[in-house]
Amino acid sequence: MMTVKALNRFCLLTTAPFVGLMIWLLAANFSLSLPQHTYPEPVEVDEAAIGNQMSGLLGNLDTAKKSATVTAKSIKKSIALYRSTNDSMNQIVKIATTQAGRPAKIYDRRITRKIGTPYSQIQSDNLAAQLFKINAQNFKGYALKVKLKTSKGMKMVLGKDKVGEAETTLAAAKRYNAVAGVNAGGFADNRGKRYPLSTTMMNGKYISGFEPSYKDLFFVGMNKNLELIGGKYWDKGQLDKQEPLFGASFVPVLMKNGVSQSIPDKWQVSPKRAPRTVIANYKDNQLLFLVTDGYNENGSSGATLQEMQILLSRFGAIDGYNLDGGGSSSLIFNGRVVNKPSDGRLRPLPTHFLFFK
């Protein structure tokens, strides 16, 4: 263990150099001074220049503020003008749309009044169909006016969907869930089969090829633009040019371009009167079907073809075509048979025009 004497000796040896250095500094009168360039020279402040600069900055800020205010007001006016113009344009569009539809509505009211008051009608996205009663001097009948809105509103079908097969228009309508139906073209029976007469088309394709028109035979159907097309076609290219979608054949043509056509002698008396089915159109492409009643096919009841022409003219139709009549005349509306079939029941047929909601 270190003694007190030894400890004192250790402390004296440790501090002796520092004590000696302090005694020497005091004896030498030592002083410490820094060179002149160590201290920066004082800078004189030009308060007037600073004031001018501050005034300029404040002036620029004031100008910028005024400019921003003017710009903001201009933007607000532009926005208000845009909104006002947009509202005005919307009003113009609404008025234009309303006005554009007026001629069609006026025309529709005019032709509808000529037929009478519909006693049943169907409105849907695909079509608008109206059913009327006809009470003429020599017969009773029905008018079906159809406005197609889309290509889904109408098509032609084969009996039981097979060439040579037949079914009633009511059966076809039920099978396809159609809201209305009318018998289509003529037919020829052969070995227990019932075949569509002459040129017949479905889905833009010929069922049994193209046959040039002969004698009084015509083709009538709808094209891809939902327009009624019809008449006599001497070659396939002539018909193809009209882009037919579907159609059938029969005799004769009753009206073209609002003018009644001459009826061949044969069809004036064979038979003279009978149940009839006629397809026609208006200048706005609406369709008109006329179906008349008759007790039989012996020529003593029903309508003559001349009387059908009178109805077409009276109702304002443009083109008109006689479809298969007699016991073939069929009119279905909302799931029921509208006309009175001369056979006492509907006749199975190979082609039908059907209409869909």
TrEMBL record:
Pfam families, sorted: NAGPA (PF09992)
Under the GO molecular function aspect, what terms does this record hold?
hydrolase activity, acting on glycosyl bonds
Residue ranges of domain Phosphodiester glycosidase in the record: 176-356
What protein does this entry describe?
Phosphodiester glycosidase family protein
Q: Does the keyword Hydrolase apply?
A: yes
Q: Which residues form a coiled coil?
A: none
- Keywords assigned by UniProt? Glycosidase, Hydrolase
Highest taxon above the source species: Bacteria
Q: Does the keyword Nucleotidyltransferase apply?
A: no
